[in-house]
């Protein structure tokens, strides 16, 4: 699903009105009716007190329509108009009159702190104050009202966006914004719903298809693409019945040091479970018995050194090399890595200590084969590209970095971001249980396993990240977040592939 900016959504809005020959009031009615239907589905005529805070723009207009529908269904609704301006939108005014016709009553106006209503923690609050039209931080009594709503501890449903959250920049620490439990957003999610600095304000997220112009939605380039099952499925390449292991490539997994052989084991196993035809593992001698015993399906080559990598002399023609897990940063290992880079021309996957070696020896960057996949977590990224001001600045810096070196970059996080070919993809699978030792090693093996099967590195990164999260979700369902360990993600790759095609 594409992610659009506020300006693009406004354009989609205008085109929809023109091409579907409807009024903006009808579009608002359509969008807000879908929201009230969702609320009704969940509340099931409950007697809960619903308090709807409406701004005086179109987000407020949505709130008034939702109020009218819920009142018609018999809910106990109280509407408050947050009168931040005398400049009310046309559709706000139309729906203000319609609400009055339904209730024969005027909503309460909030014009200062004296008008703040009491909010009980058992109330159900709907935030329809500001949406994508917010263009400056909230001030004065409006900011205080937001704090008042948050402090009530009531359940908060935000319409389109939590009020106070900008669609295109990070709020300052002192800014007031709604901390929603649930956000129902129109047509496409907004980028800030997935950024580490702002995602917590959104709560659970539901996107409603309000039927905006199809032609625009499919032809317009998004700011990013959200990867869910539908998008991941499109990347999957089925296997031919008439094939042999040679068709699925040979992944060479290089890494490990004394006490860290487990990382290479996890990556190698993940590459096999993802479908690589052959996997060879290149490790220090101390890992030989461990690997051969724990993973008889892999071939093992050892360095002449017992405890670290000193010379990666593999004498093979692997389809992909996956480097760095548990490798340490010994000067001899760095030298060996440099030689490996100079002798490799196919895209590689670089993780963990491989990334740290590059961060500390930037001259290595020029030897990286084009389209290689780097898989940093935020700390590793910071070592690679330096500091950033905020999440938007980070995205810009990563785009510059990946484009200037022609790389694919997987930035791991609650929502993993994938950058490549000038585009940005946001993964929508996975869960907090996956923040556990070895989870990244498994991801490296999965992506390498896909590249070995001739997936383009960018497609391998996107699909790999999605499958990794999906497998983690399957584990968490059966085992809880706490008990999930990385080996479980590998073991459930089969279930993840099956689930990719199950609805
Ligand atoms: N696009 C679509 O497809 C559809 C959109 N729909 C809905 O419309 C919503 C967007 O509505 P909107 O454009 O009227 O903006 P909204 O967020 O209500 O803000 C209103 C005004 O507030 C002002 N303002 C800004 N910052 C401020 C501040 N700090 N303090 C005080 N005032 C401030 C600013 O006006 P200004 O003061 O700058 O003149 C701004 O114009 C969208 O989120 C969705 O809910 C659906 O109905 C149907 C389909
Ligand atoms: K809102």
How would you describe the overall organization of this protein?
The protein is of the alpha/beta class and 503 residues long. The protein has 2 domains: 221 residues, YjeF N-terminal domain (Rossmann fold), CATH 3.40.50; 254 residues, UDP-N-acetylmuramoyl-L-alanine:D-glutamate ligase. Helices cover 41% and strands 16% of the residues. The protein is built from 17 helices and 18 strands. The strands form 2 sheets. An 11-stranded mixed beta sheet has the order 1-9-18-17-16-15-14-13-10-11-12, with helices on both faces. A 7-stranded parallel beta sheet has the order 4-3-2-5-6-7-8, sandwiched between helices. Strand 10, helix 8 and strand 11 form a beta-alpha-beta unit. Helix 3 packs parallel to helix 4 and helix 15 crosses helix 17. The longest helix has 23 residues. It is elongated and about 85 Å long. The structure holds ligand NPW and potassium ion. The site of ligand NPW has 32 residues, from helix 1, helix 2 and helix 3. Keywords: ATP-binding, Isomerase, Kinase, Lyase, Metal-binding, Multifunctional enzyme, NAD, NADP, Nucleotide-binding, Potassium, Transferase. In the N-terminal section; belongs to the NnrE/AIBP family. Belongs to the NnrE/AIBP family. This is Bifunctional NAD(P)H-hydrate repair enzyme. Its cofactor is Mg(2+); K(+).
Brief overview, please?
The protein is of the alpha/beta class. It is built from 17 helices and 18 strands. Strand 16 (408-411) and strand 17 (417-420) form a beta hairpin.
